[in-house]
Amino acid sequence: MALCEAARGGSSLLWPRVLLFGDSITQFSFQQGGWGASLADKLVRKCDVLNRGFSGYNTRWAKIILPRLIRKGDSLDRPVAVTIFFGANDSALKDENPKQHIPLNEYVANLKSMVQYLKSVDVPEDRIVLITPPPLWEAAWEQECLLQGCKLNRLNSVVGEYAGACLQVAHDCGIDVLDLWTLMQKDTQDFSSYLSDGLHLSPKGNEFLFSHLWPLIEKKVSSLPLLLPYWRDVAEAKPELSLLGDGDH
């Protein structure tokens, strides 16, 4: 009974959150070896990493659903970091894939709108990271398209235009950006091994993304304490003295 009373007296333990918002490359990121899973592993006992990836989505749809994912509330409940990772679908060719295609100028406006919305719910610029779409390996993706009974519906040069627009939005808004499209093609290297089907990330591509994203996330979460004491530090006689504090250690 005394223990129950002590437990009731403890303060509620709020877990900070990192929000990953994007398309299928985010949705699939919690698979084994995925970049989101690696991020969650890195931040275990410091914050929760929430996967809000939506396969096939573009920025037009993302802008609509973002207010359903995060609202203005208690300052302790706001994400400590948010990634916005769209463009792989927006950059689909209009003639071949009109449902997912978003014109470049609207893509820019949608990204800016999402950043402005986050600011309106008290998520400041220094907590946001934009990620450009990765490059497209056309030969492999064309095979995927043919298997689905359609023509090649994306071009790497066009994806590059959307990546460049994403960079410009980050510059205009004063936020961090990971230029995945450029980094994967640095020094004209063969980037095909980073992609599983020409569009989505392979295990090597997931590792590459995580290795470049982590420094941007780390500086946003570096002040977060380890939640609850290390087991050797728990008071043996009265563990509640160790476990019912503010959670920091």
TrEMBL record:
The UniProt record lists the keyword Methyltransferase: no
Example of a GO MF term: hydrolase activity, acting on ester bonds
Hydrolase is among the record's keywords: yes
Pfam families on file: Lipase_GDSL
InterPro entries, sorted: GDSL, Iah1-like, SGNH_hydro_sf
SUPFAM superfamilies tied to this protein: SGNH hydrolase
Key words of the record: Hydrolase
Function: Probable lipase.
PANTHER family, per database record: ISOAMYL ACETATE-HYDROLYZING ESTERASE 1, ISOAMYL ACETATE-HYDROLYZING ESTERASE 1 HOMOLOG
Family: Belongs to the 'GDSL' lipolytic enzyme family. IAH1 subfamily.
Protein name: Isoamyl acetate-hydrolyzing esterase 1 homolog
Organism: Nyctereutes procyonoides (Raccoon dog)
